[in-house]
Write a structure and sequence with these properties.
Elements lengths: L12 H9 L4 E5 L3 H9 L4 E4 L3 H4 L11 H14 L4 E5 L9 H15 L3 E3 L7 H9 L4 E6 L5 H4 L9 H17 L3 E5 L3 H10 L4 E4 L7 E4 L1 H4 L17 H17 L11
Helix pairs in contact: 2-4, 4-5, 5-6
């Protein structure tokens, strides 16, 4: 049953918990710069994720691993300057939190102070528990991330669906309960069976945001460039393309080139 969207003037971590309690689904998209974030925020998206996927879609890397903390802060600061309503969550990049809880806290503090972001997100369960607790103890909201964790791609060796086997599914459920217990305000579940994701969402009181995790969770997230059809070579089952900007932009740019070559642009009305 769908629930009418309430008019939230500003989304906070408490808003998201209330939305889950009220049965209202949560919308979440990525953004990495001021201009796109302003559009996303104005369209009514609840949460903007400044994802380490910027490593892929903005910088052209094969994985999310190369992006640095300084680069994440740069992207996040532009997004924060654009928004009026959305909650801005910023990914802690690979290497900035895994090895040392003190380093994790320093990284999270830098993001909050230098970008103005509202919360951080990091990947993993019990193996990063102490890092999460250290960040939470400093008053910084944390969103968890379980299932397919792209920062561990070389460990997995593939981007295939996770937690299909009972052992891994049980660990994921235990990790989700642990993340709720220590104080995370939400969890992203990526590329896991829909039945398992629904079970997890129903077992905890904090919101569960899915990407490739079915519709039994509390909200959905997609990479903006994917759902707008800018990254046309990417075809996962969970992706719905709402536009085909790759073709539209290519056509428009090609026309611009032709107009410049033929001296059709600028015409008499387009010059001083």
């Amino acid at each position: 049953m769908s629930v009418a969207k309430k008019d939230y003037k500003r989304i906070t971590v408490k808003t998201l918990v209330d939305m889950k309690a009220n049965g209202e689904k949560i919308s979440m998209l990525t953004a990495y710069d001021y201009t796109m974030a302003k559009i996303v925020d104005g369209a009514g998206v609840d949460v903007i994720l400044v994802g380490d996927s910027a490593s892929n879609v903005m910088a052209g890397h094969e994985t999310t691993l190369p992006i640095t903390l300084d680069q994440m802060i740069y992207h996040a600061a532009g997004v924060v300057r654009a928004i009026e309503r959305s909650l801005v969550v910023v990914d802690l990049p690979f290497g900035s939190y895994q090895s040392d809880p003190k380093e994790a806290l320093r990284s999270a503090i830098r993001i909050m102070k230098e970008s103005g972001g509202h919360a951080v997100k990091l990947e993993g369960g019990k193996e990063v528990k102490e890092s999460i607790k250290r960040i939470l103890n400093a008053g910084i909201p944390v969103m968890g991330h379980l299932g397919l964790t792209p920062q561990s791609i070389y460990k997995f060796g593939t981007y295939t669906v996770r937690a299909k086997e009972e052992e891994e599914a049980d660990k994921l459920k235990e990790d989700a309960l642990m993340l709720e217990r220590i104080g995370c305000f939400a969890i992203v579940l990526e590329k896991i069976p829909a039945k398992l994701a629904k079970e997890v969402a129903e077992s905890i009181s904090i919101p569960v945001i899915g990407i490739g995790a079915g519709n039994g969770v509390d909200g959905q997230v997609l990479v903006l460039h994917d759902m707008l059809g800018m990254t046309h070579e990417f075809h996962p089952r969970f992706l719905r393309r709402y536009m085909n900007l790759y073709e539209d932009m290519t056509s428009s740019i090609s026309q611009y080139v032709k107009d410049v070559k033929s001296v059709d642009f600028p015409n008499d009305d387009e010059q001083y």
